[in-house]
Write a structure and sequence with these properties.
The longest helix is centred in the last third of the chain and has 23 residues. Helix 2 runs antiparallel to helix 3. The two termini are about 65 Å apart. The protein has about 280 residues and is an alpha+beta fold. Strands 9-10-13-12 form a four-stranded antiparallel beta sheet, with no helix packed on it. A three-stranded antiparallel beta sheet has the order 3-6-5, with no helix packed on it. The protein is built from three helices and 17 strands.
């Protein structure tokens, strides 16, 4: 709903002051006085709901009666309001929730009438922005963007959260507001905007669940020496002696440096095997 406005439609008639005393002076409260209903409705601007509080002063009892159309037949004091979609009259209060054209009559018990034609053509629900989540490649952060609706009357969308930022990088989100989230949590986005000249505010809620907080799950690791037959665990000393024996049979000798490098490799491998067994 649009913000409350201090507008007064004053239909006081100097020629009938003895029947219809003037309204109290409201200028000190910042009220603006309007003397015709067309200007009055235009100054109301856009809203989703109008509520008028009608001040009627007369020496006789007065009823407010709403009739459909701008050229409605003048009612009598005993008449009742028409059924008008989006318009309701309750005592001295008139509520309008849908665009409508009607005439509001103030009728006293002597059937003296004052009529006010009213055209409400700027009522309705404002389109709303929505949220878009963008997850980082490592799934450790989520940017939550505030996306405006595609409506030329909807302007000046600003996220008002303390941690809000405005995107400066090139791309489809350039210039949009966002917050950056690093934990899975519920968030509330507050914002302001202008719609058809009226300053409005709102909030949107969302839940971030895309952050990956799961630790790595290491099930098992196996080490072995791949031979032509199979993969098997090694006894480094026995395997090295077998290698020396077979080498001597084939070549008669083996170089010490090759033997030492091989033993060093086997010992390192055995160390890793034992370390993994202790996990």
């Amino acid at each position: 709903m649009a913000q409350s406005k201090k507008l007064v439609l004053n239909l006081y008639d100097d020629n009938k002051h003895y029947l219809n005393p003037s309204l109290p002076d409201l200028s000190g409260g910042g009220y603006e006085t309007v003397t015709d209903s067309i200007s009055f409705m235009k100054k109301m601007g856009w809203s989703s709901h109008y509520r008028f509080n009608v001040i009627v002063s007369d020496i006789n009892g007065v009823k407010l009666i709403a009739k459909a159309g701008l050229n409605a037949e003048t009612p009598t004091f005993d008449s009742t309001s028409d059924t008008i979609d989006g318009v309701s009259v309750n005592g001295r209060t008139v509520d309008i929730t849908k665009n409508a054209e009607f005439t509001l009559f103030a009728v006293d018990s002597c059937n003296n009438v004052t009529e006010i034609p009213l055209v409400a053509d700027n009522l309705g629900e404002a389109p709303q922005p929505h949220l878009q989540k963008v997850v980082s490649g490592d799934m450790q952060t989520v940017k939550v963007y505030l996306i405006p609706p595609e409506d030329s009357d909807f302007t000046n969308l600003v996220m008002t959260n303390d941690n809000a930022k405005q995107e400066t990088s090139d791309g489809e989100y350039n210039g949009l507001y966002y917050i950056e989230v690093t934990d899975n949590e519920n968030i509330v986005i507050n914002y302001t905007y202008t719609y058809k000249g009226e300053n409005e505010s709102g909030e949107l809620k969302a839940t971030v669940t895309e952050i990956d907080n799961s630790p790595a799950n290491l099930k098992s690791v196996k080490f072995g020496l791949k031979t032509q037959r199979a993969v098997r665990r090694i006894n480094p000393l026995r395997h090295s002696l077998d290698l020396i024996s077979s080498s001597r049979k084939r070549n008669g000798k083996i170089k010490a440096v090759i033997f030492l490098k091989y033993i060093n490799l086997i010992i390192k491998l055995q160390f890793h095997i034992r370390k993994m067994h202790r996990l």
